[in-house]
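During the reporting period, we have paired protein sequences with backbone structure tokens. One record among many follows, to show the layout:
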Amino acid sequence: MTDYHVPALLKETIDGLNIQPDGVYVDTTFGGGGHSREILARLDKKGRLFGFDQDEQAYDNVLDDDRFTFVRSNFRYLKNFLKYYQVEKIDGVLGDLGVSSHHFDDEERGFSFRYDSQLDMRMNRKAKQTAADILNNYDEQQLARIFYLYGELRTSRKIASSIVFARQKQPIETVNEFLQIMDRYTQRDKEKKVLAQAFQALRIEVNKELDALSEMLQQSVEHLSVGGRICIISYHSLEDRMVKNFFRSGNLEGKIEKDFYGNPITDLKIINRKVIIPTEEEQRRNPRSRSAKLRVAEKI
């Protein structure tokens, strides 16, 4: 499905993986299959590719190829499924984080403030907790924490207070009901930015995205062969900071430990010292790629 999602930094990511024709690779964010198709094109008959996606709609894009295995699951369970398929070592891992174009354009999923719909935001619709559940059930302190940490909103406490006040009259169920609460905190010249931050915060909490990323990064390095590559595309500073810290230090805090001789103790070597961003041409062709940042590391 070509309109499901246009992959950002496609060539740069595939080049970064340094694909070996007979290697085993994992696309942790299968989506529309754009990256996976390019990986398969570079594999021979012995190569294998596993594609993870927790959204049932991604299954419609499954590739008809004997070398490809679709895993309908969150990438935080990478280790479990590799064990299930009796795979000990892999040669490359790809993660194109965040939300696909398909999710933003689906009027019924609640990911975008452009459409009035139920406040859902679940990537896996079998999950129990929705964005509406968070707004109606979290206490004021929890809400403030989410909007501050995940949305980086300075008005997080005031927003949380307004949500608690509003839900005393009636439950907050729809996008428009949430937008009415947010109206006093959005100046017209920064309205889209603030709303994007607020929706991002809710989405991250609903899907436990940062926890999942943390687990995936650690499991990926554990299973990578020496010389294997990990390529991560992030779209906001929280994710990018985690990836940068992990690639640099081998831990999520970014704390560099050194051996007796002063050499950093890490399993990874950074391939691109400078973060890779889309060219101006790609940004014009695919505006949603503007915030994409690619980092590449190699197992040593």
Remarks:
- The longest strand covers residues 224-234.
- The first helix runs from residue 10 to 17.
